[in-house]
Each structure stands twice: as structure tokens, then as C-alpha cells.
Amino acid sequence: MLGSGAREHAIVSALLRDGEHEIFAAPGNAGIAAEVETVALDPTNAEVVAAYAVDAGIHLVVIGPEAPLVAGVADRLRRAHIPVFGPDKAAAQLEGSKAFAKRVMESAGVPTGRAVRVSTPEDAAAALDDFPAPFVVKADGLAAGKGVLVTPDRDAALAHAEHYLQQGPVLVEEFLSGPEVSLFFLADGHDVAALAPAQDFKRAHDGDTGPNTGGMGAYSPLPWLTDGSGPEGVAGRWASEAEFVDEVRRTIAEPVIRELESENTPFRGLLYCGLVLTPAGVRVIEFNARFGDPETQVVLPRLASPLGEMLLAAATGTLAEHDAPAFDDEAAVVVVLASEGYPEAPVTGRPLSGLEEAAAEPGAALVHAATARDGEAFLATGGRVLGVVGRGPDLAAARDAAYRGIGHVGLEGGWFRRDIAQRAAEGHGTTTTEGATA
Ligand code: AMP
Ligand code: GLY
Which domains does the chain have, with CATH numbers? Predict the structure, then answer.
């Protein structure tokens, strides 16, 4: 397992539930180290990773974050004939280059927002006039989550475009209005297998206010998808979650994977579909080439099929030989604990308390994101420190468990959102992206 965050901890925990693996995490974190052996190596160094994997006789490498994908670690491992869950560098461009993703979607006939790629401020200004407000401007390459601006202010949109044009092309995109859904597919280069839909909370503060973050919480399933409480364009549209998932598989995931296959850049790994459910239909807002964080923390605990088998099947091109992943009916909610000053300037190095009490809370489990061991104690070493995952028969029960759990955790200056999954749990649907800034 390559990576060191909460996503990787969630994957390791799910694999351990399969009950039959010997797992090495590189480099892992303090929470992962409490469960499996960790190896201090740089997960983005392809030569080092391949040499270690060959030496240790590893049967499957699961790549958690995008950095090793972009660095070509999967390519190198495949050259060494080691099965890898994670796409080669070329296919990982689906995440790394928005222009690449748009082109693949166009070739595959996949519904997404109309976009214009511009290279000069003059063209950016002209493109902004082609779309009604609010304006959406995106840097083309990876911009550490800061490349996207959604704003009603044309001057701000133009300034954002001009700033990122110094680094390369910029996309001006049609604004898509509606709730966002994250839906993950395992892909083996040809076939796909859907996991369960989830929704994350990107804004720092309650009521979807404050700056954009890596994700302050998530929940699954999404009752408003099918129970009539969703907004226009959702209510009454799908009779069941399976119907929704199947539509996304048929119209988005499969066509994209087949297009990449036909271009000789097969995608073997996790296709993360970031979707907006607009009144006009489902649209792709982004693809990622890896599991999403924090959605993974709520999707994998609900998985009833053995994860290791599915990941190996995706890595070896044999998904068709397996039943579709099954999910239990229980709900899961994760609430993320952040350090003082996150996301602008997180204060790190402070001690954590109450972790055992949190984990002992019925229905609650801990996922470590950025922690380190200090003797018997744990320190917070990053902006997003850990998540508490609550499970229960419905979202209200899962929320209770998560919030009871996180209530035990002590961290000077630490904070978390109080409204994760609240609207959905109360049967009030969900918020939309309206006015979002990312
Ligand atoms: P991205 O980096 O493309 O995932 O964009 C980050 C966030 O910006 C998304 O999760 C949305 O909340 C918002 N966003 C991106 N593109 C659009 C769009 N075309 N219309 C509305 N909101 C968008
Ligand atoms: N949850 C957003 C991401 O993983 O990119």
C-alpha cells in the first residue's frame, strides 16, 4: 500500500477485514503503523518502490495518492511484472490534465460542462463573454486544489485566468448547478465495477461557508438520490440507487475506460467520477485517478465484498470474472478533525488525547490522516489530522456515532464541522454547488 493519509488507512482497514493478507504500507502513518508493518520509502520514487516490491515478493501494489501515479510508479512496477492497482502515467492524465480529460470525454461522448481552452488573457476575456455568470475558471494542470474559481464576479474570473495563464493553458467552463456526487469505479482496463455513491463536504465551515479544503467530512449512502427529497433534476429521477449507479456506469465510466483502452492507454485502477446532477442530467465535473478522500472512509466500511480480491482483479484485467461489489444497507458518516489554522496555516506538532475512548465508542472507528507517535502518545502533524467514522442503521445513527466519537478527541485549537450529513440525515436533501469556490 503506497501512501500515508486517511484514504490509505481506510484501504488498509478494509483489506484487513478480508482477513487473509500480509500488508506493508509505504510509508504509512502512525495509525496505519498500529495495524500493519510500515516501510520508510519514498512512494513517488519508481526505482525504489519497484526494487522493494521485487525484493519483498509483493503480489499486488495498491497506489493510494496521485503523486506516485503522475511520477510513473505504476508504469515501472508493470515493467517488473508486478500487478498494480493504479493507472500508468499516461492514463492518470485523466486527473492531471483537465484538457486531456475533456478531450477523452468528447471522444467518448460523455456528458460534461462545455469548456473553452485559452492561452491568452484576450481569449480568456472573450470566453468569459460566451458563458453566462457565474463564471468557472480552471487551471489546466494539477494546482494543489487551488486551480478552480467559481465566481459571479467577471473581474475576479479574469484575474484568476491571468494568474494561471502564467503557468499554462486555462479552461473557461459552463457553470453546472446541482448537488455533487462522488462515485468510484474499479477499472481493469476494459471493464468497470461500481462502488457506492458518497458526498463530501469541501468547505471548511458549517453551512458550506469558508475556504475550500481537502474535505471536512463525507457520508454514504445518499437517501435524497431516490427518496424524493432531492432538488430539481434529482427528485423522481431514479427509482433506486442501483438505477443511478447503472446510468453512470453506462454513460460515463464504461465509455471513458473503453476510450482509453482504444487509445492504448488502458486505465487500471480507481476511476473517481466527480458528478453534478443538473436539471438537464448528470454531468462530469472532474475525474480523479485514485480513491477520493474523505469519501473512501465511508464507502469502504459499507463494502460487503472482499476488497483485496477486487483490487487484484482490476490490476490483472479480470473484473468480468467477479460479481459486482456488494454493499450493506448501513450508513456511514466521517467527520474530520482539523488543526488550528487549517487550511491557510495549520499549527502542527500538538498532542492528541482521547483516541482510545473515541475508538471505543460503539459504532465509531478512527482513521488517521496526519499523526505521529510520540512515545505512547500521538501528535497531530498536518492540517487534517484524523477522521472519526460512525456507522449505524441510518445516517442519523451514523452521525451520532461519529460525533460521539470525535467528542472524545482532544487537540488544542482543533476543530471540526458540526453539520456533516445533517441535511441528508434529517430528510432535507442536500445543498448544491451554487456559489461554490474551490
Ligand atoms: P474540480 O477541481 O474540477 O473538481 O473543481 C473543484 C470544485 O469546484 C468542484 O467540486 C465544484 O464544487 C466546483 N466546480 C468545478 N467546476 C464547476 C462547474 N463547471 N460548475 C460549478 N461548479 C464547479
Ligand atoms: N474528495 C475530493 C478528492 O478526493 O479529490
Answer: 2-89 (3.40.50.20), 114-173 (3.30.1490.20), 180-324 (3.30.470.20), 330-426 (3.90.600.10)
